[in-house]
Structures are given as C-alpha cells and as structure tokens.
Amino acid sequence: MLNDTQQALRAHIQQLLNNKQLNDAHHLLVQRLKQNPEDHVCYFLLSEVNTAAGDINKAIKLLEKALSLAPFAIYHLALAKLYVLLGKVSNAAVHYQSAKQTADFSATDFDTLANIATRLGHYDDALSFQQAAYQRNKDNPQISYNLAVCYKIHGLFDAAKSLLLQLTQKQPRFYQAHYSQAELNTVIDAEQHIQKLQALADKEKSIVEQQVYFHSLALNYEHLNDYKNAFKYFALSKQAIAGKLNYQATQHRHFCQKLITQSKQQAIKSSDSEFSPVFVVGMPRSGTTLVEKILNQSSKLQGVGELNDIAQLIQHATQSTRVIDSEMLDKAYQSEAIKTALASYQQRAELLSGGLRSCDKQPFNFYYIDFILAAFPNAKIVCMQRGWQDCSIANFRQMYSPQSVFHHYSFTLEDIASFHQDYSALVSHFANKYPENVFLQSYEQLVTEPTPQTQKLYAFCDLSWQENCLTFYKNNAASATASKKQIRQPLNKNSIGSWQNYAEFIGADLFQ
Fold first, then answer.
1. Domain range summary for the chain, segments of one domain joined by +
2. Hey, how many other C-beta atoms are within 10 angstroms of the C-beta on 26?
3. What pLDDT, on a 0 to 100 scale, did the predictor assign at position 500?
C-alpha cells in the first residue's frame, strides 16, 4: 500500500481536483515523472486526474502502467471502479477479486470497494466492506448512509433505521437519507418525520434534491393513509425531473414496434450452448423480485441479482452509443459478434451461481430476448404481467434515478401507461415466437392461486416443485431491489387494486 509520503501526495492531488485545478495537478505529476519515470504512484494519480477530466480510457491505461510497476491492491480497486463505470463488468470482476485481498484500505477506499461489490452482486462482501469503512470513519455522512443501505439490502431494517435517524439529525439536509428513512417509517414515525421535512420546505434545493424531498413527504403521507397529500407530493417529485429528461413515449412505441418487426423478419442462428439460465423480466414493480425469490427456493437454482451485463455487452458488441435505440437494433440483428459477446455473461453467471443454474432478474432484459435465446437456446425466460392500473401507480410512486435511461418512462402517468402497453406487446410477441422458452406469469394469478401457479412456473423452468417455495420470505438472502421490504413478507393479495387509493386524483380519462 501507499506509504505516508505517497498518501500525502495523493491527498494534495485530491485537494487540487476538488478545487477544479486539474491543470495544476497534471503539471505537478508530469514534473515528478520527469524526475522518476518509474514512479507508479504518479501514474495512479494521473489516472485520477484523467478520470476527473472525463477521459476514462486514458485513466485505465495509466492505471495499467502503475500496476505493471507495482501490484498494489489500490490500483486494482481503481481499475475495477473504472471498468464498472464503463459497464465492462467482466474486467471489473477480475480487478475486484485482486483488490479485495487486502485489509489495509482507508475508509474511503473500503467504501469504494463496497460499492463495486454491490454493483457486481456480491452483497455479503459489500456489507463487510461497508462496515469496515464505517469503523474507520463514523463521521462521514455518505459512508454512514451507504452502510444503512447495505443493512436494508440484507433485511436488517432496525439497524438501518437507527443509522438513518442519527444521520438525518446530524445532517438535516441529507435528503437521500430522509427518503431511505421514510421507506422504513411506522405511522408514528411518519407523523414526526413530516414535521422535520416541512421545516426544510424553504431551503434551497437542487432538482434532484427536490425529487427526493417531495418523495420522502409522499411516502410518509402514504404511511398515514393520506393519499391526497401522498399523490400531491409524488407528482411534485416526478415533475422535478420530468421536464429535464425529454422522454418521448412515441419514440419508445416506434422502437418496440420496430423490434417486433425485426424479430419477425430476421432469424438469428442459435448457438450450440448448453447453458440453461433462468431470466425473470418485466416492468419494474410487476412482481419480478417476488418470482425470483420463489424460484430461488429451488435447490437447483441460484439467484445472481440484477446483472446489467446483457445490455452492456450488446451495446459494446455493436459499438452503439445507447442501449435502447433503433441504431443498436439494426446493428445487433446483423452482427455475429453478439453470441460471442454474451459468452462472457455465461462465465460471470456461472461464477456467481456456484455450479447451480443461475437466475437473473434484470427486468429490462425483455428487450433482448431474441439475442439471449440465440446465445443460450436452453434459457427459460419468465415475463411478469401485472394489471396496468396497479403497475402504473406502483411505478409512479417509486423513485427512480434520472441517470437510468431505462426508467425515463416513469415520470408521468401517461408515459408509464404507454410503456406498459409497449411492454405487453413485446412479451406477447416473444411468448408466441418462443413457446418453449418464454412464459407469461400473471402477478394477480400468482398471489391468488399460489400453489398451482408456482407448480406451473417450476415446471416451465424444468425444476422440481418444492412446497417451501412459498416460504421464500423466511430466506434472509440479500435483495437490492425496490421490493426489499415486501419480499420479507408472506405471499398476499394486499396490493391488488391498490391503484384505487389514488383513483380520485388521476385524470378521469387515463384509467378508464
């Protein structure tokens, strides 16, 4: 690891970067390299300068140079982080495995390592690393918040709530912490929390802070069954972001129609792979996490979380600028490189599943069903279907990051309802095209008739039905999804018709 002198240099460079003095930092490091061309620390720090400047590819080359001179774990950590940012998860995984071998990181570096572990689906590792970061610096608000999130992922809600309460008391304008706290509140908590949040009403907020602030209020009012105010603040939360995204529902409709047309017209030759993964796909808030947990009760299946690999590998193989657009589609259907690219997905899924069949619940993999089945003809894909009113309201009351292009549909009720139609058309097409590989699972039927529905589900996935699949809520496995609280509860019908709580506040023509 870095010695005291090297740590001091790193701190100085970081201060320059914080002050936007990139040129000064660059000049200082270049001068030092002229004196000693073998100074690996300078190459490492130059990579951080280039990362700050937005040149990640140059930063990776500099880190590789540093690593060639000195095999420091911190260099592997930095490379893992950059590869995650680029979406090259297989490369990130290699360097992550090397970085995690040390116990001599700073609080900030352990925090980074925990974040990478979460992105790669190693949730138990992430909790250990986040606890190590917290023990080294309990006064860092972001590290405290990240630990609370880890606790929530592992179902340790009391520990998370305690940490969040402390955090919002010390840092009242840490709005993300307020949101996470609001998710966990009881009725009594909600009444008190609303008062704290209202005291912040006149404070200046960025657009993202407005989104989080209003959403926190909405969740608390929902705890109180005050659906009028809940809807008001959900709407304000969405409005804070919607105008900045320029999402066009008509463009998404055109994209999905083109995908169906190309799927009908252009056959992709299948590989001879015997890999037989299970995928659970669907609109967010349609029951994908529930089905994944039910399936993962099988002794033959291992959940691997929501892997982003499929979309990213197809994007890289087609050299496309975006993961969902017509240009990417045109290239993908004409490219023989897709199946080769997806082979690295198989390697990662097999690594995470430990010799069992893998179950991936990245919901948006429904866009890529043709390519998945070309690469893995034995794959089974479960497509969730949920009543459009309930699904639309569930998406409207969920806070999504504006950084995620997949969720840009979710900021107006009209766009959500349109997206639901597009999704339904897509999966109906794929179910007709691949009756042996694609299965449409109704959420409502599943929670109403759990035994016969899970028997059909298991049979489709070539799994022997196990009665304990219905006691999934007793499984303490980590869950990083929006349903992390719900899947700790027994199967129930409570959410069917929940949209009616908001019916009087919705435009009369929308939900007819």
1. 256-505
2. 18
3. 92
Q: What is residue 421's predicted lDDT score, i.e. its pLDDT?
A: 97
| Torsion-angle region of 246 (φ positive above 0: left; ψ -120 to 50: alpha; else: beta) | left
Q: How far apart are CA 447 and CA 40, in angstroms?
A: 58
What type of residue sits at position 260?
I
Per-run averaged pLDDT (10 residues), the chain, 512 residues: 91 95 96 96 96 95 96 96 88 94 90 94 93 96 97 93 96 96 96 96 94 97 97 95 91 96 91 95 95 92 91 89 85 87 90 93 97 96 96 95 93 96 98 98 95 94 89 66 57 88 81 60
CB-CB contact of 184 with 177 (8 Å): no
Kindly report the CATH class assigned to 256-505: alpha beta
Residues 370, 270: contact at Cβ < 8 Å?
Answer: no
CA atoms of 180 and 148, how far apart (whole Å): 8
**pTM of the entire structure?**
0.87
Q: What is the pLDDT of residue 136?
A: 96
* 268 φψ region: left (φ > 0), alpha (ψ -120 to 50), beta (else): beta
Cα dist from 128 to 107, 109, 125, 157, 503, whole Å: 12, 13, 5, 17, 44
Please report the DSSP string for 71-129 in residue order: --HHHHHHHHHHHHHHT-HHHHHHHHHHHTT-S---HHHHHHHHHHHHHTT-HHHHHHH
Indicate if the alpha-carbon torsion angle 163, 165, 171, 174 is positive or negative.
positive
Instruction: Please classify residue 166 by burial: count the beta carbons closer than 10 Å to its beta carbon, then call 0-12 exposed, 13-18 middle and 19+ buried.
Output: middle
Q: State which H helix or E strand residue 358 sits in.
A: strand 357-360
pLDDT value of position 496 = 92
Q: CB–CB of 113/105 below 8 Å?
A: yes
- Predicted pLDDT of residue 467: 84
Residue 220 near residue 190, CB atoms below 8 Å: yes
State how far the alpha carbon of 505 is from the alpha carbons of 233, 390, 400, 420, 485, in Å: 12, 14, 22, 20, 27
Spatial CB neighbours of 85, under 8 Å, sequence gap ≥ 6: 56
pLDDT at 322: 84
Q: Tell me, what DSSP letter sits at residue 442?
A: E
CA distances from 461 to 150, 279, 366, 458 (A): 31, 10, 17, 5
Exposed/middle/buried for residue 265 (C-beta within 10 Å: 0-12, 13-18, 19+):
exposed
